[in-house]
Structures are given as C-alpha cells and as structure tokens.
Design a protein that fits this description.
Two copies of one chain form a homodimer.
Chain A: E1 8-13, H1 17-28, E2 33-39, H2 42-52, E3 56-60, H3 68-77, E4 82-87, H4 92-100, E5 105-108, H5 113-124, E6 129-130, H6 132-140, H7 148-159, H8 163-170, H9 174-188, H10 193-202
Parallel strand pairs in A: 1-2, 1-3, 3-4, 4-5, 5-6
Chain A binds a DNA duplex (30 and 30 nucleotides) through α9.
Chain lengths: 206, 206
DNA sequence: CGACACCCGTGACAAATGTCACGAGAATTC
DNA sequence: GAATTCTCGTGACATTTGTCACGGGTGTCG
C-alpha cells in the first residue's frame, strides 16, 4: 500500500462545509498526512473513495443522503480503506453497529483536536482506536431489552403521531400497537411513547 | 485599537474541541489573524474576553452553561469587541435576537471554510455580515402569531411533560394552560403540543 | 410432551389531552 | 357611554392515551 516515505492519503466527509474545511486545514498541517478527497454527503463520499482509493476515510456520522455507516458499508464494497467514524452524539448502539461494519476508529467531536492526527496515524498503522468514554458506555449499557415489534412501534412513533397511523403503517390493530408501546415504556421507565422513543434512539436501538 | 500593521485578535468559543481546534488551525493560517483565546463554553468565553480584550469574538450558538447569545451579552458589558455568531441550525428568530444584541456577524456552519476569514476581516473593518440565506428566511418568515402566555406555555411544555406541572410552573390552572396550548396548536397547525413546541423552537420563538 | 417466549388481538378502565362555549377585564373606536 | 376587539381565565365535554387482564397462535428448547 503505502511505504514509509509516502503520506497517508485521507478522505474527509462532513456535511458542514465550515468544519470540513477546518479539518482539512488542521490535518493538512501534518507533514505525513495528505487530504486527497472531501465530500459533503455519504453518497459522493463513496464515489470518491472508489476513484481515489484513499488509505483512510474520516466520515461524519450525521450526514444527509447516506450517513456515515451507510457510506462505510458502500465504501468497503469496492476497496479496503480503514474507516474512522466521527460523531457529535456518540450513542452506544451506534458504536456496536459501526464495529459490525469493520470500522477501525470511532471518535466523538469532543476529542481534542491534536489527538485526531495521532488517531489517524494509529489507524493507518493497522491499529484500531475507540474513544474510551464511548467504549465504557457501550460496555456498561445493557443489551436492548425490547422485542422486534416493540422496536418497530417505537420507530414508527417517532415519525407518526397517532396510534391509528402507526397501526396502519405496521398493519396491526390499534390495540396491539398500544400494547407494544406500553410494554416498551414499562421496560424503559418512560411515561410517554415519545420519551420511550427518544431513549431508544439515544441508545442507538432504532 | 489596532492599526494597519497589527493582526486581528480573535477569540474562539465552541464546545466541540475537535472543531475549535480545527478552526484555530484554519484561521491561524491567515497572516492577518491571530487567535488569542479559546473557550469551550459561554461563561469562560466571557471571562477570557474581559481579560484579553480581543477584537473579534467568534461564538458558537449551541454551548453548555451559557449559549452564544448569553455570552455575547456578557461580553459586551465589559468591552466592545465585534461579535460573530456561528450556528449549526440557523433559525430566523435567533437571528432577530442576535441582532438585538448588537451582534455584528451571523454565519451558519454550512458556510464554505474559505469564506470565514473574509467575514472576519469584513467585520473587523467595521462592516456587518449576515448570511444571505438566513436573512431571506428571517424576512419572509411572518412575525410570531402567538401571545406571550402561549409562548410561556410552549416553553414549559418542552421541558415538562404533564399539563399539571406546566400549570404549577406558570402559577395557572391546568385548564388555562390547555387552552393556551390548544390555541397555539391551532395557530401553528400542529396536532400535539410537542409538535407545536417544536415548530415554535424551529422558528426561534422560544 | 410441557415450559417458555414472542406475536397478535380484544375489551374495559382511569387519566391525560384537546376542543369548545362562556365570562371578566383592558384598550380602542364611534 | 356603547360597541368592539383583544387577551387572559374557567369549567364542561369527547377523544386519545396508557394500563391491565385475558386468550389464542406460533416456534424453540429441555
């Protein structure tokens, strides 16, 4: 791939131009890193990755079109760069899914800026890097106690408002939906379905 | 203050270390800009501003402790730097409040990175800069149709869940609160108070 | 087989929520 | 002064929501 003398070839994807540009500037200062591509959404990130074959892809998790995990999946189908996910809200369940996708690095945006270059070097050297805070949270967080249908109901209840509509979406009777939501709320200790749906989302279960 | 030869003295405040560091790197590359202070919340930003007396303060809107507007207010009590607000979600109402605080610049994080330095120079030269997209949105957006009490109720309903608790917070009867929420929902075309509160927040009314 | 967990549905009930009609007070206008 | 409009407030009402108890069906595991 890249020998001792050549630079680490980096792709950056973030939908906020200001931040992407700033990251380019920050990392461009490093003598052993070269930014070879940048994108503002997951789809073009995947396309660019196929073209330029970078060593490392630095992907923001929250992006329009396709998020960081979608992009990682697409990228790994046509190449084998190392992937680092950057995120604002680090949720345990998301970390699990990221690791399932063979992601090599996972850092929150609260990471000190100086650290990032080191993480990139470590990952380029074949190591993996997981933010210790998030790792701890993911390990202490118990497994999702909800059943599949309960998760379906919660998912629908985030976008839809009335039980009727949720029932129609899932092809169920309204009573059943309320039962699922009720039991989910009981398991999560929430007092409204919105609260329960929020919690489930925070954990990365939906 | 600063004559032709001296650099623009800049304070940066953003709670995400990664972004703050990246911005420092980006702007540090400019020959006529010098980052003299940086903070990760509004309170320390205000304290630092009093100490180092920067020419320009670049404040993120979303910060813990005190947000960008709070910080701007505090800063302007003990000095007269020019303030630039940076934000992820640019809401029309927030722009209005920012202008009321004598803020000199208002840019979203979707601004191209190269632009930012130019904005800083313009503002340092005494001009004002408002992102055209947000300005247009703020001008087309009609004035808030809600009464003061309706706004109070919506504000409370974002943090509190039951009508009872909202009523206690506002020293009102539960029935009155429900009326305010109901009329607010009618005015906004929402079908639940959460939806209405969300809309009002999106517009920057609360 | 029995025990168990999950899926789907029903009916009934209390509490919370949203809607409505109505009234008191203040300000404006004729 | 009377009519009008606006805001703020109260109480009654139907609907929605969340809870509970129950039953039938399916598949898995010991």
């Amino acid at each position: 791939m890249n020998d001792q003398t050549s630079k680490i070839r980096l792709l950056i994807a973030d939908d906020e131009h200001l931040i992407r540009g700033a990251l380019e500037a920050l990392l461009g200062l490093e003598p052993d890193i070269e930014v070879v591509a940048s994108a503002d959404n997951g789809v073009t990130a995947a396309e660019l990755a196929r073209e330029v074959q970078p060593d490392i892809c630095l992907l923001d998790l929250e992006m329009p079109q396709a998020d960081g995990l979608d992009a990682a999946k697409a990228i790994l189908e046509h190449g084998s760069p190392r992937i680092i996910i950057v995120t604002r809200h680090a949720r345990p369940g998301v970390l699990r899914r990221a690791l399932a996708e063979q992601v090599a690095g996972f850092v929150p945006k609260s990471t000190p800026a100086g650290e990032l270059a080191n993480v990139i070097r470590d990952v380029a050297a074949g190591k993996r890097y997981i933010d210790p805070e998030i790792a701890a949270a993911a390990l202490t967080a118990e497994r999702c106690p909800l059943t599949d249908r309960e998760l379906d109901a919660l998912r629908s209840s985030r976008s839809t408002k009335s039980v009727q509509e949720i029932a129609e979406q899932l092809f169920l009777s309204p009573g059943t939906v309320r039962n699922y939501l009720s039991s989910a709320m009981a398991k999560l200790g929430a007092s409204s379905r919105h609260e329960a749906a929020d919690q489930a989302w925070q954990q990365g279960w939906i």
